[in-house]
Amino acid sequence: MKSRRFLVIAAWVAACVLAIFAIHTPRSFAQSSGALAKAQAAFDQAQQDYLQGKYDEAAKGFEDAYGARNFPQFLYNAGAAYHMKGKKTSDTVAYTKAVELYKRYLAEDPQATDKAKVEKAIAVLEAEIKRLAALPVVAVGSGSGSGSGSGSGSAAPPTPVAPSAEVQSLGEVKVRGLVVIESEPQNATIYLDDKKRGAFATTPWSGSLDGEHKIIIEKKGFKISESSIQADPSKLFVLKAVMSEEGYLGWVEFASNIEKSEIYMDDKTIGSIGRTPFAQNIKPGKHTFYISSEGYDEYKQELEILPGQTYTVKADLHGTPIGKINVQGLGIEDSAIWVDGQRLCERGPCLKSVPQGDHTIEVRRSGYKTYVRRVSIQAKTETQVKVALAPEPSRSDAVVAYILAAGFTGGGIYLGLQANKYRDDLTSEIKAGTPPPDSNDPRFLKGKIFAIAADVSYGLGALTALGAIYYTFRDKGSPSTGLIDVRALAILPQLGPNYAGIGMETHW
């Protein structure tokens, strides 16, 4: 008897434990993989029925799929089926069911990206229901005779009427596919295509995707899962990642006071591994982490990563006031932009951040005059420089002057040699004791004339050479110019469907 009581008590305790476990087990775990398979089978059949115009069967199939796995998208598809039936047959009952299902869809997914579009469809269909109800009806009866008292009849609308222009404007409604991403264990982080873009969602997740994507699933202490999917907007696709434990890795969580700061590990030339906030498994060993954001001093930390351990890298970035410089202009695509002797952009247009203060800007282009300007950059401003480069002038006048200078100098040399020749001849005769018999020997006059002519040629050559040098280095023609416009950059909070943060707004 005691043994029997013990068995009863043990069974009662076991039942209580199972009940408590069932209460505290996450809903997604309680739903078996068989339920998901049932939902997929119902979805596939409903999709075929929809394409064949069997709207009642399609709607029931989508509702069955929702009964197996309550994804809101199934409710939308059921509503779409009734929507199309109402449009084809002017059936107010079908329109009413479509409105009910659309409303349930929005109640289940209040953050739906198509909320405004669905709300518009609801309003249009409700107006269409009222319009159809106000149409005159005819009696459809059976029996013989033509008298008013013969046969029996019932009120019914005439043959289907054309939908209103508002219903027509909604277009052909198409059912939607669904992508389901699950993992074991759950609450893993999902990255779409690239981890640098930040976390996309956490498992379990369901929603719409289109095209080919790389799905990265990661969770602390588990091996990372990577898969490629080809999402079809008309089908149900299920991705379930079973992640094995990865005890030999360490887990590092990154954060900074400036959101979306770039994170680098060991070698910065490889590129960032992500943006704050961020977390991932890291192989054991000594690693150097860098966290930086434009306009802030870089944060650096070294860590010795041990297997199975969790680490936190939190950067407190301190900024240097910065402004932006924006260099534009005709032909800027072939120009290099330099700031303070350092190349800022290989080619324009050039929009870069620079520290607050005075800077020297140079815009260089082959065959054009260099534009040089000293500008003062203020914090939270954008200094726009519109440059107009002037072409380098021709130096043909300098070339002609050099040629003339060479000609005059050459002529001076020749004349000087002739003067020296007469002088040397006369000197030789005097030394030989045979001086010229007449002091009016023409060689004296010719020597003087050649000497004077040589001096004049040398003088002209020197003056022409100076002119050539002047023509070479003089700044001929209009200089390169630039217009400077300073605009304020206001930092404002921004909120989007997939992010929250701050942004810059320009005023001028």
Give the helix/strand layout.
Layout lengths: L1 H23 L2 H4 L2 H19 L3 H14 L3 H18 L2 H17 L6 H19 L4 E5 L9 E5 L8 H5 L8 E7 L4 E4 L8 E2 L2 E3 L3 E8 L6 E7 L4 E7 L7 E7 L5 E4 L8 E2 L2 E5 L2 E8 L6 E7 L4 E6 L6 E8 L6 E4 L2 E4 L4 E6 L1 E8 L6 E7 L3 E8 L7 H36 L10 H32 L7 E15 L4 E8 L1
Parallel strand pairs: 3-9, 10-16, 17-23
Antiparallel strand pairs: 1-2, 3-6, 4-5, 4-7, 7-8, 10-13, 11-12, 11-14, 14-15, 17-20, 18-19, 18-21, 21-22, 23-24, 24-25
Mind explaining what this structure looks like?
This protein has 508 residues and is an alpha+beta fold. Among the domains are: 27-134 and 161-176, Serine Threonine Protein Phosphatase 5, Tetratricopeptide repeat (Alpha Horseshoe), CATH 1.25.40; 178-242, Sandwich (Immunoglobulin-like), CATH 2.60.40; 250-315, Sandwich (Immunoglobulin-like), CATH 2.60.40; 396-473. It is built from 10 helices and 25 strands. The chain has helices spanning 2-24, 27-30, 33-51, 55-68, 72-89, 92-108, 115-133, 165-169, 396-431, 442-473, and strands spanning 138-142, 152-156, 178-184, 189-192, 201-202, 205-207, 211-218, 225-231, 236-242, 250-256, 262-265, 274-275, 278-282, 285-292, 299-305, 310-315, 322-329, 336-339, 342-345, 350-355, 357-364, 371-377, 381-388, 481-495, 500-507. Strands 20-17-23-24-25 form a 5-stranded mixed sheet, with no helix packed on it. A 4-stranded antiparallel sheet has the order 5-4-7-8, with no helix packed on it. A 4-stranded antiparallel sheet has the order 12-11-14-15, with no helix packed on it. Strand 24 (481-495) and strand 25 form a beta hairpin. The protein is elongated, with a radius of gyration of 45 Å.
